[in-house]
Amino acid sequence: MASSGSFNTSSYSNRYLTFSWWVNSQDIANNKTNIGWKLVGAGSASGYYVSGNFKVVINGSTVYSSSTRIQLWNGTQVASGSLDIYHDGAGNKSFSASAEAGIYYVAVNCRGSGSWSLPSIPRQANITSAPDFNDEANPTINYSNPAGNNVSSLQACISLTGATDDIKYRDISKTGSSYTFNLTTAERNVLRNACTTSNSRKVQFFIKTVIGGNTFHSNIEKTLSIINGNPTFTSSNISYKDNNSVTTAVTENNQYLVQNLSSLLVTITSATALKGASISKYESTINGVKKTITSAGNIDYGVINSGSNLTLSVKVTDSRGNTTTATKTVTFLAWSLPTALISLKRKNNYENETYLKVDGSISSVNSKNTMTIQYQYKKTTETSYSSLVTLSDNVQVTMTKDKESAWDFKIIIKDKFGTTTYNTVLPKGRFILFVDTKKLSVGVNCFPTKTESLEVNGVQMLEYDEIASW
């Protein structure tokens, strides 16, 4: 880029013209350069030449034209002047100039031209750097404004798409080099609401320069991140109850769940999504079972087989994929069907006198459970049982049962939730060892039916001769 320049025309008899120019001034606001120029006779020949038809063209415009013939000496200034040359939008400009004359002759016989680039005129401000930033920060951009106070307006904004100033333009220093966006809550919400399905997005910083009635933009793309956006959700948003009226009638507290009987109903109240997001789902997990709902409400788990407390975990997910998990302990009371140890036997394993004792066991259910023990009986040859008889736990009762018959006993143990039935047989009365002196026979667990024999459970094992040989 040149601030001055010159050229010589062709010559006649060592006489020619020299055109020269120089920068007088530059008008930044109006984007123009004013140059001075002159056309002077030159050459080594002595004396003068009568010359005319002078013409000077600068940047496409004729700035001097004369057909008057004059004495052209070495050093004669033919013409001079100044000219405003306007630059392009970027502040750059190249121009050319030409000159001609008829030296000695009337016709033009000497010509010359040249071209140059003028010094650039500062135009727009440019962003030199900008940060990736989060929604809680006040981002600072760096910029250069070579035109300084010559610009009529200098502003900065943040745009989501590059089409509009979503974070509105605000004036920035014309002579400064950095600017910090002190964002308002409303402006932060504009950014957050444009980023509801992800924790980041691209945005653009812009600087707008107005100079000489022209507007220029400089921009740079950066990443906005959402931080601290996890939904607000705590254990207070979770409640549960036993939804089985039968079990709650016993426990008298719907916060206690009875193993394998109660019906667990979980209630979730709404989580609070942050920074423009929305809640997309609730995932509830207990005892390895996960259930999902898309809005706050109830989740019915039904019956759960657990005899000890379980942790209920609820994970909330928002539209950005952020999660918050809260837990609550669900109280379970162990329960299983009643059980019993039963003793049923005849006196001496033979007589009619019979003894029954039942040692029952039930689940406590927080000391709310109670037990009932009953029995009934019939001969094994009969079809109908007797009426139910209630007996006390672990207390032996005595009864009479014909030793000539076997008896079916049904033992029924009940608690407040279930019943267990045991069936057992009282066999006929029999001695463990019986010696029949009339038949000269021995019976083991039976009365011998044959003479001179050993019988076990009614089966003859040995005859007399074999017994005698012992």
Can you describe this structure in just a few lines?
With 470 residues, this protein is mostly beta strands. The protein has helices at residues 185-193, 245-251, 464-468, and strands at 4-8, 15-27, 32-43, 49-58, 61-66, 70-72, 77-86, 94-103, 110-117, 126-129, 133-134, 140-144, 153-159, 167-171, 178-180, 200-211, 214-225, 238-242, 256-258, 263-268, 279-286, 289-293, 297-303, 310-318, 323-333, 339-346, 353-361, 372-379, 389-391, 397-400, 407-414, 419-426, 433-436, 441-444, 453-456, 459-463. Strands 4, 5, 6, 8 and 9 form a five-stranded antiparallel sheet that branches.
Query: How much helical structure, as a percent, in the residues?
Result: under 10%
CATH topology category name of the largest domain: Immunoglobulin-like
CATH-level-2 architecture of the largest domain: Sandwich
**Biggest sheet layout:** 5 strands, antiparallel
Shape: rod-shaped
Number of helices: 3
Extract low-pLDDT stretches: none
Radius of gyration: 57 Å
How many strands in all?
36
Share of residues in strands:
over 45%
Overall residue-averaged pLDDT value: 94
- What distance separates the N and C termini? 143 Å
What is the number of domains?
5
3D structure, described in words:
With 470 residues, the chain is mostly beta strands. The chain has 5 domains: 4-117, Sandwich (Immunoglobulin-like); 126-225, Sandwich (Immunoglobulin-like); 235-333, Sandwich (Immunoglobulin-like); 339-426, Immunoglobulins (Immunoglobulin-like, Sandwich); 433-468, no CATH class. It has helices spanning 185-193, 245-251, 464-468; strands spanning 4-8, 15-27, 32-43, 49-58, 61-66, 70-72, 77-86, 94-103, 110-117, 126-129, 133-134, 140-144, 153-159, 167-171, 178-180, 200-211, 214-225, 238-242, 256-258, 263-268, 279-286, 289-293, 297-303, 310-318, 323-333, 339-346, 353-361, 372-379, 389-391, 397-400, 407-414, 419-426, 433-436, 441-444, 453-456, 459-463. Strands 4, 5, 6, 8 and 9 form a 5-stranded antiparallel beta sheet that branches. It has a 5-stranded mixed beta sheet with strand order 11-17-16-13-14. The model has no long low-confidence stretch (mean pLDDT 94).
